[in-house]
Specification:
single chain, 296 residues, alpha/beta, Rossmann fold, Helix Hairpins, 9% strand, globular
Length: 296
């Protein structure tokens, strides 16, 4: 590390691994602040299903980009890049080190590598794909995405029609894969980026995920989902933890089955996260408990 440069330490890893507690401990040790790069935790209406930091945790260390927008707001990685760089510019006036943590893959990528501007999409193109989705032909959309953008296909939630359409409409508009807009030429930052990856033995991680879902249910996840059921078509709510409970409310599955699916889909998401993060060859990987000892 360049001792003369300001440093952004990005702590990432799969969901449920223990990023929040460790990052707060490190922030206290370094007397610094935390920027969230967990896209689910941006929404001020959602707390339980997103595993957002608690009020107590937020009071321990100053957090940025947690609960700062509404589920009704439009937000994307480009705006996140702008917001984060603005916050970092201010924090680095007083801090030598700032922490960022989360598991949202594209949002971490945009800070590390930058992103080219994605053009506006022709409404006719967007409507074309919306009509296909409305007819329930998600399989054909998946197949087309796999052909035109295999890299994005590997990481996107293949049950999330809106995100699949995003990849297809960008390709139709530009002739370039959506994944290519993560700039192949790394943007130069005026600060140094240090990547810390957290992971656990797979069985331990999966047990933590299962237990966390049980705790969420006890803490009122069902009630939170019921409150926002009228807005279930919003992209912010088309995510693990909410969509399974919406299926229960629609009478499609039992509550027991919904909980089982939340656990399974969260485990699958964790697996996709790890596959993505393994692309970062300059990452130092730790078990969270090992890293806490390393900090001492």
């Amino acid at each position: 590390m360049d001792s003369h440069k300001k440093k952004l330490i990005i702590i990432f890893g799969p969901t449920g691994v223990g990023k929040t507690d460790l990052t707060i401990s490190l922030a206290k040790k370094l007397n610094t602040e935390i920027i969230s790069c967990d896209s689910r935790q941006f929404y001020k209406e959602l707390s339980i299903g997103t595993a957002a930091p608690t009020t107590e945790q937020l009071s321990e260390v100053k957090h940025h980009l947690v609960h700062h927008i509404s589920i009704h707001d439009y937000y994307n990685v480009s705006r996140f890049e702008q917001d984060s760089l603005k916050i970092l510019n201010e924090l680095f006036k007083q801090k030598d080190v700032v922490l960022m943590t989360g598991g949202s893959m594209m949002y971490i990528d945009v800070i590390c590598n930058g992103i080219d501007n994605i053009p506006d999409i022709d409404p006719e193109i967007r409507e074309h794909y919306k009509e296909i989705l409305a007819k329930g032909d998600l399989d054909s959309l998946r197949f087309e995405l796999k052909q035109v953008d295999p890299e994005y296909y590997k990481t996107v939630d293949l049950k999330n029609g809106k995100r699949i359409i995003r990849g297809l409409e960008v390709f139709a508009q530009t002739g370039k894969p959506f994944s290519s807009f993560r700039s192949s030429q790394k943007k130069q930052r005026d600060f140094e980026i240090v990547k810390i990856g957290l992971n656990r033995e797979r069985q331990e991680l999966y047990e933590r995920i299962n237990k966390r879902v049980d705790i969420m249910m006890k803490n009122g996840l069902l009630q939170e989902a019921e409150k926002y059921y009228p807005y279930k078509e919003l992209n912010a709510l088309n995510t693990v933890g909410y969509k399974e409970l919406f299926s229960y409310m629609d009478g499609e599955i039992s509550l027991e089955k919904a909980i089982e699916l939340i656990k399974r889909n969260t485990r699958r998401y964790a697996k996709r996260q790890l596959s993505w993060f393994n692309r970062y060859t300059d990452t130092k990987w730790y078990n969270p408990e090992e890293y806490l000892k390393f900090m001492e």
